[in-house]
Amino acid sequence: MSFSGPEVIMKFKNKHTDDYIEIFRDFEIKKRQISPTKQEKVTIRMPASLSTLCIDMRSNDLKSLILQSRFGGKVKVLSDKLKVDADVVKEFFGPTVRNIIDHVATLLKEPSVHGCAAILMVGGFSASPMLQESVQAKFRNLRVIVPDDAGLAVLKGAVIFGHEPTAITERVCKYTYGTGTTHQYNGTCEHPEGKVESDKNGNLRCYNIFSIHARSGQSVKLNEEQPEQIYRPVSDDQTKIGFKIYSSSTAHPHFITEEGCSLIGEFTIPISDTSLGSNHAFGTSFIFGGTEIVVKVEDKATGEVTLESVNFLG
């Protein structure tokens, strides 16, 4: 609705939120009825509050502003309805459909999906004929499946998975997962200034390191343990080691402070015997693939193994 101006739309959103949401709900229904061959005008209800705001802020009602815009011959206002030529509405889908097609094409080049025979389209937008026909045209060598109630497929899948975790035996990590950690500076580290500080014992340490346990794009099987990593307390008198778990949108993050890194949870390893001090080693292995992340901890001094739950609520 560029004919009304971004200032009008922002005020409309803030002042008349119910009407703003109703427009999007109406379009959500209409977008599933628009196909590449559609020629009929698309009708969307326009609340009177928007036209009133246009008069207050632009000294013209919505109908007059449309006539003055480049959409004058293709968009009309009749009472409380906006009638839009099919060609104009189809333009809305262009950038989004192209981005989805490009993203899927990139994913299909990944080694982990070699041999893929079908594309399963789920989510509300998958019900759009515009997207369906574009996917079918681009990936003619693959079978394209659109289930009934595609918009509910993700929700239904989550419910089924919650009741029967073994229904999905393998998944691909969307993000890189790891812990924020530190290690003693050894003179060859290439950490930037500000990441190396003195601890309370006077030793130089490198901080905010992203210790990776699983990378984005990696396949993880149900209850599969990831490679073990060893952690030790920083000081001799520590009675526990606290870990913060981070996710990253990149495959090779170095620091937890990088763009795309987010804190998602935390867990703690209790240390009942402090006699070994900072030499007390603990092996940790993340277990993915279930309904939550579990951390397996092995006390290397005693051989005792425990499963630590992750607090995702903070």
Name some characteristics of this structure.
314 residues, Substrate Binding Domain Of DNAk, Chain A, domain 1, 5-stranded antiparallel beta sheet, 7 helices
Report the principal-axis shape. Answer: elongated
- Secondary-structure element order, N to C: HHEHHEEHEHEHEEEEEEEEEEEE
Mean pLDDT: 85
Radius of gyration, whole Å: 27 Å
In terms of structural class, how would the helical and strand content be classed?
alpha+beta
The helix count comes to: 7
End-to-end distance, in Å?
A: 41 Å
Largest β sheet strand count, sense and barrel closure: 5 strands, antiparallel
> What fold name stands as the CATH topology of the largest domain?
Substrate Binding Domain Of DNAk, Chain A, domain 1
Strand content: 25-35%
Strand order of the largest sheet: 8-9-7-13-14
Which CATH C-level class of the largest domain is it? Mainly Beta
| Overall structural domain count | 3
Q: Which percent range fits the helix content?
A: 25-40%
Q: Uncertain segments of ≥5 residues (pLDDT<50)?
A: none
| CATH H-level superfamily of the largest domain | Substrate Binding Domain Of DNAk, Chain A, domain 1
CATH architecture of the largest domain: Sandwich
Number of strand elements: 17
Characterise the protein shown here.
- With 314 residues, this protein is α+β, with helices and mostly antiparallel strands.
- It has 3 domains: 79 residues, no CATH class; 72 residues; 138 residues, Substrate Binding Domain Of DNAk, Chain A, domain 1, CATH 2.60.34.
- The strands form 5 sheets. A 5-stranded antiparallel β-sheet has the order 8-9-7-13-14, with no helix packed on it. Strands 11, 12, 15, 16 and 17 form a 5-stranded antiparallel β-sheet that branches.
- Helix 6 links the parallel strand 4 and strand 5.
- The longest helix is centred in the N-terminal third of the chain and has 22 residues.
- It is elongated and about 80 Å long.
- The chain starts with 5 loop residues before the first helix and ends in a 5-residue tail after the last strand.
